[in-house]
Design brief:
5 helices, SAP_dom_sf, Transporter, DNA-binding_VF530-like
Length: 73
């Protein structure tokens, strides 16, 4: 049974959805200028970004915060 998380703005949103929506909104170049990680700069793809973000908590936090600032306010 799923637990309700009414105060979590990312509840029900996958990391893949976050990366795809940010890339569609900003494009890789602008996204790389906002969050300085190589998976957004060098041969960017959703797959490589997800692989990096799943292993790197500080980068994932920055991506999630950018998503919240962009789409949830």
């Amino acid at each position: 049974m799923a637990t309700e998380q009414p105060k979590n703005p990312l509840h029900g949103i996958t990391l893949e959805q976050i990366v795809v929506e940010l890339e569609q909104h900003y494009g890789w170049e602008t996204l790389a200028s906002k969050i300085n990680i190589n998976s957004f700069k060098n041969d960017p793809s959703v797959k490589s970004s997800l692989k990096f973000l799943r292993k790197t908590p500080w980068a994932r936090e920055q991506v999630e915060q950018l998503y919240i600032r962009t789409f949830k306010q």
